[in-house]
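Need a sequence for this fold. Nothing fancy.
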């Protein structure tokens, strides 16, 4: 896989550091997250193992609580994840965070999620494991359960969607009554396994420059790295 930036996430004292791997490490280590050189990942962001971030993606963490992207998540072309500042004078703004397992996040994306091209996740929001978010869908101030399918161009705003629910193309789900009445996913639905698909981020090897507090590094950095195939 060429033209991507390989990273290895390391848990250290409840903080996540990210280090750039050498070419030999990239070949040997299959747990890295891979970020295309034309993607932007900035601010307080955690990328799990085997995450792929495609061209044109913008993942923008902010002051306060992080954007968390779990293992095996596919962030496809031109997806936007944006977290607002979640603290004011060192105090948490609870309206701008989601709580998952007793911890607070600006945005939380659980394992195995597929974010299809041009969808947007605007904080505060969380998406459960193995859920598919369709093209040009907007999720804002919402919680989406696991094993859901949200078809293209849907609007999900200000609601909590349960597990294994189906949102039709172009649907507007902006009331809890609408969310509670969403149908369960039929076992024969051809999209039910889309979150397990793949994303191709391969292009030729190039040199990249990364600036700022990227990928949850504990201090501001300016680093120059190689994009490895």
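Here you go.
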């Amino acid at each position: 896989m060429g033209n991507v930036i390989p990273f290895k996430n390391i848990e250290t004292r409840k903080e996540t550091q990210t280090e750039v791997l050498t070419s030999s490490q990239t070949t040997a280590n299959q747990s890295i997250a891979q970020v295309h050189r034309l993607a932007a990942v900035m601010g307080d962001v955690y990328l799990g193992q085997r995450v792929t971030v495609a061209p044109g993606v913008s993942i923008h963490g902010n002051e306060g609580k992080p954007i968390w992207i779990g293992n095996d998540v596919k962030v496809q072309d031109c997806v936007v994840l944006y977290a607002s500042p979640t603290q004011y004078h060192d105090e948490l703004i609870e309206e701008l965070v989601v709580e998952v397992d007793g911890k607070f996040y600006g945005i939380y994306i659980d394992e195995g999620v597929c974010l299809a091209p041009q969808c947007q996740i605007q904080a505060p929001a969380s998406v459960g494991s193995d859920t598919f978010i369709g093209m040009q869908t907007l999720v804002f101030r919402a919680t989406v359960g696991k094993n859901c399918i949200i078809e293209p161009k849907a609007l999900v705003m200000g609601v909590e969607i349960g597990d294994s629910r189906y949102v039709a193309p172009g649907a507007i789900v902006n009331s809890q009554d609408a969310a509670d009445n969403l149908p369960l996913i039929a076992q024969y639905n051809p999209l039910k396994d889309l979150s397990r698909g793949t994303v191709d981020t391969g292009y030729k090897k190039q040199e990249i420059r990364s600036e700022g507090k990227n990928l949850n590094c504990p201090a501001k950095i300016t680093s120059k790295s190689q994009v490895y195939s």
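For context: The chain has one domain: 4-191+204-212.
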